[in-house]
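STRUCTURE:
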């Protein structure tokens, strides 16, 4: 039986897989940061939606990775949760 770590190591040897893995990882990090900011602010999705001027279902889609948020949306989300939006490009 192949261990997950061994399988990941073998798959990471493929440059195409590595690139897709990095993209997915970045998306998961963003989603985690959004949920963490909302939780830290002690807001429900509905409360956050009201502050931003959208619906709870839109917040759920955003936090579920179902949409690609605009920079303006991320800024409003940050302000509504008392967080500061910071974007980095890493090479």
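SEQUENCE:
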């Amino acid at each position: 039986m192949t261990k997950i770590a061994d399988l990941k190591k073998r798959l990471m040897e493929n440059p195409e897989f590595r690139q897709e893995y990095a993209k997915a990882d970045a998306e998961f990090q963003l989603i985690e940061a959004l949920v963490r900011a909302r939780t830290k602010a002690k807001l429900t999705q509905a409360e956050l939606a009201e502050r931003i001027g959208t619906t709870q279902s839109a917040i759920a889609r955003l936090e579920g990775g179902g949409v690609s948020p605009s920079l303006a949306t991320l800024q409003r989300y940050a302000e509504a949760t008392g967080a500061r939006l910071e974007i980095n490009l890493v090479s």
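REMARK: The mean pLDDT is 92.
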